[in-house]
Design brief:
5 strands; about 45% helix; about 200 residues; flat; single chain; mainly alpha; 9 helices; three-stranded antiparallel sheet; two-stranded antiparallel ribbon
Length: about 200
């Protein structure tokens, strides 16, 4: 069980039972507690806000036009990158969410990663999240099953992709594919260097 103050701003990361009022020894007033049932499906604060309902998206026509232009270039095979920088709370996450909605409507594959500043993250977490979605690897899969899935997906990409098998296995904390269990990189950082 956890109290309101303990859950605080992280409440949306958990599914909880019905709130109960409990009198604690030494406390003058009852406190509200929740039984934590499981981890919620939301991964970010923005997802939690979206579930509660968002206000209409307005005032970003110029930024959206620039993002859509970059999307058109990407859909023609022109490599590029976009950086969105602004102060806290001005709508960067919402702008990206609206842009990704447009990209999905145009049948673009979306592979997205994130880090919440107040929750412990693994090294290179956004990159690893994108790789997991790209290769269809679920974090609850057994390592051998996930390793086989990675090997299958790399085989579909061709011989060029096969040379990254050990490095990707190490990055994703999987056992290397059974056929080649030798020198996988020791850390995600070393694996990124190997991919460069």
């Amino acid at each position: 069980r956890a109290g309101e103050a303990t859950l605080g701003t992280e409440r949306h990361f958990f599914e909880t039972g019905v709130a109960r009022r409990v009198v604690l020894r030494g406390a003058s007033e009852p406190v509200t507690v929740h039984r934590i049932l499981r981890r919620a499906a939301v991964q970010t604060r923005f997802e939690a806000s979206a579930q509660r309902g968002l206000l209409p998206f307005v005032g970003r026509a110029e930024e959206m036009k620039l993002l859509e232009l970059e999307l058109q270039h990407a859909m023609k095979g022109v490599p590029g990158q976009v950086a969105i920088a602004a102060g806290a709370g001005v709508g960067k996450t919402r702008l990206v969410a609206e842009f990704l909605r447009i990209a999905r409507s145009r049948d673009c594959q979306i592979h997205r990663g994130h880090c919440e500043s107040n929750i412990s993250a693994e090294p290179l977490q956004p990159l690893l999240q994108m790789l997991r979605t790209l290769f269809g690897i679920d974090t609850v899969q057994q390592p051998a099953e996930a390793s086989d899935r990675l090997a299958h997906e790399l085989a579909l990409l061709g011989d060029d992709a096969q040379r990254f098998s050990e490095t990707l296995s190490a990055m994703l904390s999987l056992q290397p594919p059974r056929a080649s269990m030798n020198k996988a990189a020791a850390s995600p950082q070393q694996a990124v260097q190997a991919l460069q």
